[in-house]
Design a protein that fits this description.
The structure holds 2 protein chains of 2 kinds. Chain A contains 8 helices and 4 strands, in the order H-H-H-H-E-E-H-E-H-E-H-H. By secondary structure, chain A is of the alpha+beta class. The relative contact order of chain A is 0.10. Chain B is 69% helix and 0% strand. Chain B starts with 6 loop residues before the first helix and ends with a helix. The mean pLDDT of chain B is 85. The chains are: A alpha+beta, B mainly alpha.
Chain lengths: 246, 187
């Protein structure tokens, strides 16, 4: 329950509130100018953004559209893939016992795995090593599928260990390359392209005939459409396969 | 014939223009409310340059945060709330926000008729001379109409503290009013 004195205060305060709502106080001159200047300063970065945002948008769209030009063209990809196919391939595994210095040329770009086998404990260590990259190796890859070496020169971090234990270490170097059967006749990408062009040409010819007034056979056109589409799909798949192999 | 626009319509259009950062509209809003808002700032921070600083900061907030105004309530009420908050922030920054526990021993009696006849200027003077804690709570409760719960949240104090500050403010005001009445009767 409210105190009666409080109740009296509430009514007076309510009266005061109403009067105070309209109370004003003079504002010094030039205050608006100061405020306006501060607002200008505050909004300046936004004005810059508003002026430049459409240029930024245009630039972003241009980069988006121009991106495919930076990617390697189909012909280049096809040429690379073809060169990979034509490279000599080795169908069998060769295991040779020789020094590692002979097996791996100093400037070969290969990712190898080294297996160290200790004779007494019969333990096998697999040490992946990545050697210096050389671009030429990409264009003319070696076809050694697997090389097993015995007593290779010990790496520097294992030299002391080896010296101490005097163990026989067997190095197994595995080089993985795509194994492509020589006998299998694969249609090359260029052949695919020729075929594709031929199909497309035929299709265009049919369409031209239709435009000229000769209705022709729609089923034929449809068939040609399928042929062209299939060739495109095949080409894309072949390219993907080649890239994966590379 | 020029159509007569209601005050509300003008206010709504001004707000819309302010949202578009129209400087003319902002000036119109400033001129419309600056006097009233300055009076509020003075009630909280006292007369002096601080009141205008608070007013300036308050209007900066009004114009930069105007997009947050949803146009559901009164625009003037929204501006008032910003000014009050800005004034409280200024008091806190200045380290002036202190709540006295001192009980001056004044009994809160029945409010007298003399209170009703008070002029706004006289009332302002009386409020201005109150200790800062009393003044702040009295202003928030009696003049702005906030509840004790809201005041406690705004000032970061207990609800009980808000109530006791108001009660003491009333007691002190009553005593001063009695003195004023006595002086008037002598004259």
């Amino acid at each position: 329950m409210k105190n009666p004195s409080n109740k009296g205060w509430e009514s007076f305060e309510s009266e005061w509130r109403t009067r105070m709502q309209e109370d004003t106080s003079p504002v010094s001159e030039g205050l608006w100018e100061k405020l306006s200047a501060r607002l200008d300063a505050e909004e300046k970065p936004n004005v810059f953004f508003i002026k430049t945002w459409h240029w930024a948008a245009i630039l972003a769209v241009a980069i988006g559209l121009g991106w495919p030009w930076f990617l390697p063209r189909k012909e280049e990809v096809a040429l690379r893939a073809k060169s990979t196919i034509e490279a000599p391939s080795v169908s069998t595994l060769t295991i040779q016992k020789e020094r590692i210095s002979k097996a791996i040329p100093a400037e070969k770009n290969e990712v190898t795995s080294s297996i160290i086998q200790k004779s007494d404990k019969k333990r096998v260590y697999i040490l992946p090593t990545i050697e210096k990259s050389v671009i030429e190796s990409l264009s003319a890859p070696t076809r050694e599928n697997a090389t097993v070496q015995q007593n290779p020169p010990t790496p520097s971090n294992l030299a002391e260990e080896k010296g101490a234990e005097k163990e026989e270490v067997i190095w197994v170097q595995v080089k993985i390359d795509p194994v492509v059967p020589v006998d299998e006749e694969r249609p090359t990408l260029t052949e695919n392209q020729i075929q594709k062009k031929r199909n497309l040409g035929q299709l265009l010819k049919k369409i031209k005939q239709v435009i000229k007034g000769d209705p022709g056979e729609w089923s034929e056109i449809k068939e040609n459409f399928h042929l062209v589409a299939n060739k495109y799909v095949q080409t894309e798949e072949t390219i993907k396969q080649k890239i994966q192999f590379q | 014939m020029t159509p007569i626009l209601s005050s509300q319509t003008i206010e709504r259009e001004l707000v819309q223009a302010c949202k578009r950062r129209d400087r003319k509209a902002q000036e119109a809003v400033f001129k419309r409310f600056a006097g009233k808002m300055k009076a509020i700032c003075k009630r909280y921070v006292g007369v002096g340059p601080l009141a205008e600083d608070v007013l300036m900061e308050g209007f900066m907030k009004v114009f930069t945060k105007i997009d947050l105004f949803k146009e559901q309530g009164s625009f003037e009420g929204w501006v008032r709330r910003i000014m009050v908050n800005e004034a409280l922030m200024a008091l806190r920054k200045e380290g002036k926000m202190k709540f006295q526990d001192t009980d001056f021993g004044f009994e809160i009696g029945q409010a007298e008729d003399v209170f009703v006849n008070l002029h706004v200027e006289e009332l302002n003077k009386l409020i201005e001379n109150l200790p800062i804690g009393y003044k702040t709570v009295f202003n928030l409760y009696a003049i702005e109409g906030y509840s004790h719960q809201e005041i406690a949240e705004m000032l970061g104090i207990q609800e009980g503290t808000s109530k006791s500050q108001l009660s003491r403010a009333r007691g002190l005001l009553q005593q001063k009013l009695n003195e004023l009445d006595y002086e008037k009767s002598i004259k």
